[in-house]
Amino acid sequence: MCASGRPEEDAYGIRVYRSDTADGYLHKNDVGQRGYCIVIWRGRHVAEPTQLSDTEAGAYWYDVLRVARALEIHYAPAKVNLFMLGNLVPHLHTHVVPRYLDDPDPGRPSGFFFVSREEPALPIDEVRRDAAKLRELLAGRIAD
Length: 144
What we know:
Layout: E1 13-18, E2 22-27, E3 37-41, H1 54-75, E4 79-83, E5 93-99, H2 124-139
Antiparallel strand pairs: 1-2, 2-3, 3-5, 4-5
Helix pairs in contact: 1-2
């Protein structure tokens, strides 16, 4: 994540949010949870949130919550889950996962974290439309 240079788009996602502390990417593949985003810490390299100062942690969580609120407004999920795993990629990031009433894993953590499989691509024009709407929401003031 540190070496990627934080492109506007890569094979996995499209950037929908950028601040001094974090970037938010809308996932391009179908993981079974429409609107799945990853918020990635932009500051110095850390693997754990416990390595952040109080000021850094506050700024990072503000960004995570902004992205989560935009997902709630745009996708209207029943719930939004926040996951911080870091077992595979040791750089601070948070999975922001909308959950829906017809969720394939009701009452449990989203199953796509635990299944090794190829994820089919979502229709790219739909993902780009969603990304544009999320950028628009995130550029405005979302109620704190």
